[in-house]
């Protein structure tokens, strides 16, 4: 029998992760998170994650550097960060975006702040 559980998450009451992300709905193989009103600043330290990420920009702008390539993210654009790829973000203008990760980022400490 298939899983028929409905998951509904209100972002106003979502738990926050170690870097300020809000965890939204999640399933066994996929999860969502919200980056809300991220402030401009220097580029974040490069990281490699044990999950794939796809994202969509709601407002603001940021630069994504992925394996040496830099792209500008602005409202209406989406992106993919493949599992294991070195990447970093630099917020240019107050930034809000939704991301989905597979497998779920928040399980088994996959979303923990990377150590240098």
Please sum up the structure shown.
InterPro entries: Cupin_2, RmlC-like_jellyroll, RmlC_Cupin_sf. With 116 residues, the chain is mainly β.
Feature tags:
single chain; 116 residues; mainly beta; Jelly Rolls
Could you give the topology of this structure?
Elements: E1 22-26, E2 31-38, E3 52-66, E4 69-73, E5 78-81, E6 87-102
Antiparallel strand pairs: 1-2, 2-6, 3-4, 3-5, 3-6
Description of the molecule:
This is Cupin domain-containing protein. It holds the Pfam family Cupin_2. InterPro entries: Cupin_2, RmlC-like_jellyroll, RmlC_Cupin_sf. Residues 40-93 form the Cupin type-2 domain. With 116 residues, the chain is mostly beta strands. It has a single domain (21-109), classed as Jelly Rolls, CATH 2.60.120.10. It has no helices and six strands. Strands 1, 2, 3, 4, 5 and 6 form a six-stranded antiparallel sheet that branches. β1 (22-26) and β2 form a beta hairpin. The model has no long low-confidence stretch (mean pLDDT 91).
State the share of residues found in helices, binned by percent. under 10%
Number of helices: 0
Mean pLDDT over all positions: 91
What ranges have pLDDT less than 50 throughout 5 or more consecutive residues?
Answer: none
The H-level CATH homologous superfamily, spelled out, is Jelly Rolls
**Span from first to last CA?**
45 Å
Q: What general outline do the C-alpha atoms trace?
A: globular
**Cα-atom Rg, whole angstroms?**
14 Å
- Annotated CATH architecture: Sandwich
Order of helix and strand elements from N to C terminus: EEEEEE
Content-based structural category: mainly beta
Give the CATH class.
Answer: Mainly Beta
Strand content: over 45%
What fold name stands as the CATH topology?
Jelly Rolls
Q: Major sheet: size, sense and barrel closure?
A: 6 strands, antiparallel
Tell me the total number of β-strands.
6
Number of domains: 1
